[in-house]
């Protein structure tokens, strides 16, 4: 009897949720065949990494013995899935709304080949990123260590692949790729940002680089940096407008700094200190820093300030900092 009651309640629950799906809201789509497949796109991203770094990452399911055969098999797999996914997302692209399935497929194939033909150019940029990371980090043992283990390089690599698709006008897929890298590394780079050669992200966690950010060459940024917009109150009215800063060549931005606004230009050879909050342009060669907060150590029942070199500091359990 109890089983019949559970079955009836389950059927009622199914009908309740199905009826909720029928209200035509943005969240009500459930035709999985006409939507991009995030899992396929993530797997494709990892396969593209194998192509970018052929001697470092491999698909162990491929039993091949030459570089030619290995790359051929991987590219065939990538091409097949990429064409299918682009065909799906092209329905979101302006000018493609009225194309039939055959026309969408032809356009998707053109875009896929154009993207894959850009891999040598993308690898050229990534090579400079590897060198910038090695030159900028004395903790790096060699470039192999960077390729295998540095989250900053992984996020940059995914960004450079996604950016190429973005510039080709492919919707959704580039953002899915960079958000996958974001979830893995904590580094959020919009695929629409423009980033030059020799880009170095040190540590990386908590970095945000907005869609209209422009970054020159030989730029180094540390964890917690935000290159963002001043306000998003305008919402969709701000689409396609320059909302994020421009960072020129040879700039270093230390941890926790925020640089905001589409009119904000950090000119070449500037150093931005940690925790700086910048909403106006900075001239070339400047050094920007936040004034150190004054620290006072108080100790004992008399609440008497003690200097940092006093022998009494650290001799009791109840000392603390007042900031």
Task: Please supply descriptive tags for the structure shown above.
323 residues, alpha/beta, serine acetyltransferase, domain 1, UDP N-Acetylglucosamine Acyltransferase, domain 1, 5-stranded parallel sheet, 8 helices, globular
Write the layout of secondary structure elements.
Blueprint: H1 2-21, H2 38-52, H3 67-89, H4 101-117, H5 119-136, H6 143-149, H7 151-167, H8 173-185, E1 188-189, E2 194-195, E3 200-202, E4 208-209, E5 214-215, E6 220-222, E7 226-228, E8 246-247, E9 252-253, E10 258-260, E11 265-266, E12 271-272, E13 277-278, E14 287-288, E15 296-299, E16 304-306, E17 320-322
Parallel strand pairs: 1-4, 2-5, 3-6, 4-7, 5-8, 6-9, 7-10, 8-11, 9-12, 10-13, 12-14
Antiparallel strand pairs: 15-16, 15-17
Mean pLDDT: 86
> What is the ordering of alpha helices and beta strands?
HHHHHHHHEEEEEEEEEEEEEEEEE
What is the count of structural domains?
3
Return the structural class: alpha/beta
Estimated helix fraction: 40-55%
Low-confidence segments = 308-323
Instruction: Determine the N-to-C terminus distance.
Output: 67 Å
Q: What is the number of helices?
A: 8
What is the number of strand segments? Answer: 17
What radius of gyration results from the CA coordinates?
26 Å
Shape: globular
For the record, the CATH class of the largest domain is Mainly Alpha
Strand content: 5-15%
Q: What's the CATH architecture name of the largest domain? A: Orthogonal Bundle
CATH topology of the largest domain: serine acetyltransferase, domain 1
Question: Largest beta sheet: what is the strand line-up?
Answer: 1-4-7-10-13
CATH 4th-level superfamily of the largest domain: serine acetyltransferase, domain 1
The biggest sheet amounts to:
5 strands, parallel
